[in-house]
Amino acid sequence: MTKETQVSITVIRRLPKYYRYLSELLQKGINRISSQELSKLTGFTASQIRQDLNNFGGFGQQGYGYNVEELHKELGKILGLNKEYKAVVAGAGNLGNAIANYGGFKDAGFDIIGVFSRYYKDLPFDMEGLEVRDMSELEDFIKDNNVDIGIITTSKDNAQKVADIYIKSGIKGIWNFAPVDLVVPEDIVLENVRLSDSLYTLSYFLKGLGK
Amino acid sequence: MTKETQVSITVIRRLPKYYRYLSELLQKGINRISSQELSKLTGFTASQIRQDLNNFGGFGQQGYGYNVEELHKELGKILGLNKEYKAVVAGAGNLGNAIANYGGFKDAGFDIIGVFSRYYKDLPFDMEGLEVRDMSELEDFIKDNNVDIGIITTSKDNAQKVADIYIKSGIKGIWNFAPVDLVVPEDIVLENVRLSDSLYTLSYFLKGLGK
């Protein structure tokens, strides 16, 4: 799998989409699919799909296409979805609540085992089945439980402070929802969700419609 | 602005990031920036930045760089952020609540004027200052108020039904958070937020760290 290290981020960001479509095909009991059919589903060209998947090994067979179950399983491994991750959420507002209670993440191997808030006056409180702890306990909790992923759903102003605690406590991946560019060391995996960027893209295309 | 129609989606998705950085520079009182300095901030190469911005006209001047205020204003116009949009949210769970109450959207011209839920037994209820209405009123509300954008924060199972109501009522843009591929006519702008795709990308890079 040495080839994998050279794969561009653009290709990698397409993999979850392939994985999602393959999951749906599996649910429908479809066992085999050509790159042309995958193209119709995903909106990527057939040659793009073949090229993307060839980065990770030869999955398809000429004249047969792809075995859906096998490709789904392999893509899952490539994405690391055959592993179990422990995650914590910092920021127990609406967004933190939404993320902590979304069942889909647990099904995919991401187990949110703690939620933390700095509003200690009202803590601990119960948030739809999850106990919310005081932010001062975050560092010890991460170390005691070998947490892999730190999720940030705090305000913009508190996000870097939380990131610093995550880094200090040995977390390897940060999933950041706060609208701020965090400063993290190179060996920390940082993935940002930029809701405004998505909304502005929508706005760009609406403008094209004459709005 | 006929040139604009040929611009690729990849370039367009970078514009909100430029806009975000320019907003921050403006706040810091910085009036002028070179493509090299913008490169350090954004992580894109200087030539990429010049190429991206040239798609929309000649903003920079050789030897001077970019005027931050002017470029910010022009990018805002290109993204349609100089306009006011009316939006509604369908789905009044945690995520709907988070979206409806996020002040940053209103500041950027996106005004969420209604929240709808199908859990009519408990409706209308007050959700942090927003009255939540019954889903059966959605269609009339959109028509009466000339709503531009429909946001979907329902479950996967209800998302297409809501999209159909949006389309029937004359909404032009859909911002979808439900993990499902909606079927919409070509003249509807559909922007999806795929939280799982982002999490899987994080997982991919964590795996590279030996997790």
Automatic annotation (TrEMBL), chains A, B:
GO biological process: negative regulation of DNA-templated transcription; response to redox state
InterPro entries, per the entry: CoA-bd, NAD(P)-bd_dom_sf, Rex_DNA-bd_C_dom, Tscrpt_rep_Rex, WH-like_DNA-bd_sf, WH_DNA-bd_sf
Domain CoA-binding intervals: 80-181
Record: residues binding NAD(+): G91, A92, G93, N94, L95, G96
Chief subcellular location: cytoplasm
Compartments it resides in: Cytoplasm
DNA-binding region range list: 17-56
GO CC, any one term: cytoplasm
Keyword tRNA-binding: no
Sorted UniProt keywords: Cytoplasm, DNA-binding, NAD, Repressor, Transcription, Transcription regulation
Pfam families: CoA_binding, Put_DNA-bind_N
GO terms, molecular function: DNA binding; DNA-binding transcription factor activity
Function: Modulates transcription in response to changes in cellular NADH/NAD(+) redox state.
Subunit (UniProt): Homodimer.
Assigned protein family: Belongs to the transcriptional regulatory Rex family.
NCBIfam families: PRK05472.1-4, PRK05472.2-3, PRK05472.2-4, PRK05472.2-5
UniProt-recorded name of the protein: Redox-sensing transcriptional repressor Rex
Organism encoding this protein: Wansuia hejianensis
Source taxonomy: Bacteria, Bacillati, Bacillota, Clostridia, Lachnospirales
Gene designation per UniProt: rex
